[in-house]
Amino acid sequence: MVMKESRSAVVLLSGGLDSATVLAEAVAEGVVCHTLAVDYGQRHRAELDAAAALSQALGARSHTVVAVDLRAIGGSALTADIDVPTEASEGIPVTYVPARNTLMLSLALGHAEVLGAEQIWIGVNAVDYSGYPDCRPAFIAAFQALAQCATKAGVEGQPMTIQAPLIDLSKAEIIQRGQALGVDYSLTVSCYQADDQGRACGRCDSCRLRREGFVAAGVADPTRYQ
Question: CATH number for the domain including 76?
């Protein structure tokens, strides 16, 4: 039986800028962090290597990778043979991965229950988000309610809380917070089509939001571009 730790959490760590900031914040608050990355068949595979490096660099207790191949259902430029757009578009973009955050939070929920962790931290953001429905406050609130009734811990009076501390921040504010926490953003990979070395394309939506965030934050952009 796994012994329950004081103030422990599973932190979803994609290898990107937002999740790195969330991990740094949780560690700074004294939370014992167990990071979880999901290999869902994404085309930007370098982010998985970045997640492992960040987990170690930021002081997580453990790092786990779970593989669930969403290429089987496709429907996204990140999991199917669909071009990644290089210009901003209206509505929900083709880089939206159906049910991705629902799946990731579900895996984190199971991992947290096994570990005896009380919290799940996730770096979703509803200000600079790219139109994704699963990055909004309503989604987090709904999953929080689900966590209470779908787990042994929840029904036995040990509620699991979902922490989304970046949800109301701009990208610039996230970067400023991370810089204050000592995050090395050169280790992060945000690009939707980064190469095997983690170098960014500089053209996709994620690259655009990241670049604009560094400019607005007044912080030098450490991103490695192709």
Answer: 3.40.50.620
